[in-house]
Amino acid sequence: MPLAHRNVAASARNIAATLELSAADRGLNIMPLFHIHGLIAGLTAPLSRGGTVIATPGFNALRFFGQMKDKRPSWVTAVPTMHQAILTRAPHNRDVIADVPCASCARRRRRCRRR
Question: Cα–Cα distances in Å, from 87 out to 6, 12, 65?
Answer without folding.
Answer: 36, 27, 11
